Amino acid sequence: MSRTRRFARSRHAMLAGTALLAAALTACGGGSGAATAGGDAKPEAEKKPDMAMSVNLTGDQAKPGEPVKVTLGAGKLALVKVSDGKGAELPGKISDDGRTWTSERNAAPGTEYKVEARNKDSQTASAQFKTAAADKVNKVTINPGKANPVVGIAQPVSIVFDNPVKNKAEVEKHLKVTTSNNTEGSWGWFKDYTGNDRVDWRPKEYWKSGTEVKVEMNLNGVDSGQGGGYFVKDYNTEFKIGKDRRLEVDLDSSTMAVIEDGQKVKTIPVSAGTPGGQKASWSGKMVLMTKEGTIRMDSRTVGLADAYDKMVDYSMRVTWSGMYIHAAPWNTGNFGRANTSSGCVGMSDSDAKALFGSAQVGDLVEVKGNGSKGKADIGNGYGEWNLSWDEWKSKSALSGTAQNG
Known about the structure:
Strand content: 35-45%
Distance between the termini: 41 Å
Shape: elongated
Helix content: under 10%
CATH architecture of the largest domain: Beta Barrel
CATH class of the largest domain: Mainly Beta
Largest sheet: 5 strands, antiparallel
Radius of gyration: 31 Å
């Protein structure tokens, strides 16, 4: 049940326990309230009635994950302030009839709140409550993060959750992408390569160079649903879209074209994956995920027995399952002639060094031609560009409605 507090005309109205806060509204003269010669006391019939405020959350174990609602028994609200112990306020709105104020954000778990309200007669009242702590906390991993403030034209916003998200629509409502040029895009839900729930925001078309992007994840107090727990903080990230660079691999000619701002600037002889089996390359539209440099590549980690185990330079990841673009000096005789690798796209040291120096995380990588093993699963890297716009929008938990940023 809601606690009730009454307004007193005094600015020092007191609130005690669950009792009503009440005070008679008296005139400024005459203690008896009777009209006397020369006095200014008002008759009893003209006195204003007591006014009451109620708050939907009460006590020290209030349920988190829902908005705070403040309601007047009579009269109209002029101001409501709901703040936590650190002074942060929950934004909210007063209803058209002035009787109710509702917060735009949910009450977060394990948080003390103070409610202060004033009506249009300058009467005030206050209340306090504390929400129960979360039994389970959900967290996120966000890309692009602060390590990549400038990314390529194919980079989506990608959020992977630690715990399951059953309340996908509710979570999606609290995610916002704002761009400097009103880029059209939509969120889409699917499983990450890890098996965790994931939601990405993809533009309808590739980003335009120079676009500035801000992502706000106002998740504090949102319930993930069964098995997922509550979020207990907000998240945000910002990035900018860099040069329009596209890497187009032609399996038939064993070459890679580097296209910048619509112009082919270089053709690199390469050797891609061996056709006809698990060593073939993935095809379709992918995204340069990371620039990892010199790394150890062990075929046993990707299910290819003991095919290789070596240190590889200028490595740039394309899928989580282990497809890279990198230097492959041991395969020099096949560059531009034959695809004989174990799935990666290899090239000379000099070409790999130059490409590594200019490439951006988020650059488009497109593999075409015969001999691939098909398109990688959408969660095996960033595979959403292989879907039509309508197919992508259908993956939104909010009816696939496109969102302009």
